[in-house]
Design goal:
Blueprint lengths: L2 E11 L3 H13 L5 E14 L2 E15 L1
Antiparallel strand pairs: 1-3, 2-3
């Protein structure tokens, strides 16, 4: 039997939402093992002037506890 934990994180990218998700998962995988998946809770863009400068995602990452 296994036990899983969920942690909420926020990640950003100047490229895209997908890049922000990949960056967040990559960074999280350096701290925890056995990431099972993630639920994207929120997406947000930062606008400066007429340009979108950042894509931000808030996600709940689920991983198996040892």
């Amino acid at each position: 039997m296994s036990v899983a934990k969920t942690t909420e994180i926020t990640a950003s990218s100047s490229k895209s939402f997908e890049d922000a998700i990949r960056h967040g998962i990559s960074k999280m995988s350096k701290s925890v093992d056995k990431i099972e998946g993630a639920w994207i809770k929120e997406q947000k863009v930062v606008v400066k002037g007429d340009d979108v400068t950042d894509f931000r995602v808030t996600m709940k990452v689920t991983f198996v506890v040892k």
